[in-house]
Amino acid sequence: MKHVPLGRSGLKVSRLCLGTMNFGPHATPDESFAIMDKALEIGVNFFDTADVYGWKTGEGITEQIVGQWFAKAGHRRERTVLATKVFGDMSHPSRPDPTMGRGLSARKIVRACEDSLRRLQTDWIDLYQMHHIDRSCPFDEVWQAMETLVAQGKVLYVGSSNFAGWDIATAQQTAGHRHFLGLVSEQSVYNLDNRMVELEVLPASLHYGLGVIPWSPLAGGLLGGALQKQAAGRRANEDFAKRVEKKRPQLEKYEALCKEIGEHPADVGLAWLLHNPAVTAPIIGPRTLEQLTGSLRAEELRLSSETLEKLDEIFPGPGGEAPKAYAW
Questions:
Q1: What is the 3-state secondary structure (H, E, C) of the chain?
Q2: What does the domain layout of the chain look like in residue ranges?
Q3: Which of 167, 184, 233, 269 would disulfide-bridge 9, Cβ 3.0–4.6 Å?
Q4: Active centre residues (catalytic)
Q5: Tell me: domain 3-220+265-304, CATH 3.20.20.100, correct?
Q6: Does pTM surpass 0.90?
């Protein structure tokens, strides 16, 4: 597994990022521990989580599972580049607190960080990401809180998630005026079927030196051989089945191309992302060990220019970056 700098920072992370969203809801603690053990063994050192994962409001179930794993044996924390997030509603139903609702106030950021550190059983967070933009909160306030956490050694780097291109620009300009490093990464939805970030988010990230961390790199399974699985008799939920039918013409061409080059659709989808110089590490969210190890081929797969052109024909993006995509 190769390790590369996260954006313009000196932090080295693996080319695939282990997403933990399934830890708790779909993978038991023991299954989650086994996945994290295997990830470190194969060189995946970049782990992504969030305070809201686990989907029990205010409890941080997934962070607790990751923290339990850190506590089980020495040196795991030191070998892991840990990323978590702040923004979502963490006001526990049994003790409502409006200051812990959705948002990025200085109070929310500092308290949420302390809570995440406790659940994760660690003294520091390597990459603290704003899970969503909060346009009601000025960036001077956001950076004041982040600067405090960095000065205290509780946070090393700051990233964004689901930011627009102009949000990235505003954040970085404000950070620069404060003589603060600012953002080193942006986590966005990005895959062959959803390429909207190519308009402004990817150009902004490249300009400001942010490493892009794509979430949903296989479009929720759509690009992972959905037709193959359907033909093999695997059942899918109704919503997913509708998505497959809507995209069937493209998926038929996509899976035929993958078969032609002798590669699994999931590997091709991930490898396509890794060809983009803006991308640091797509997030893979395995529920099983098999799903984790099955993702490794993508890191070494090199797609030919002919294959890349065919993928563009099957899944055309927005036409490049703005404004060239829609103006002269």
A1: CCEEECCCCCCEEECCEEECCCECCCECHHHHHHHHHHHHHCCCCEEECCCCCCCCCCCCHHHHHHHHHHHHCCCHHHHCEEEEEECCCCCCCCCCCHHHCCCCCHHHHHHHHHHHHHHHCCCCEEEEEECCCCCCCCHHHHHHHHHHHHHCCCEEEEEEECCCHHHHHHHHHHHHHCCCCCEEEEEEECECCECHHHCCHHHHHHHHCCEEEEECCCHHHCCCCHHHHHHCCCCCCHHHHHHHHHCHHHHHHHHHHHHHHCCCHHHHHHHHHHCCCCECCCEECCCCHHHHHCCCHHHHCCCCHHHHHHHHHHCCCCCCCCCCCCCC
A2: 3-220+265-304
A3: 184
A4: 53
A5: yes
A6: yes
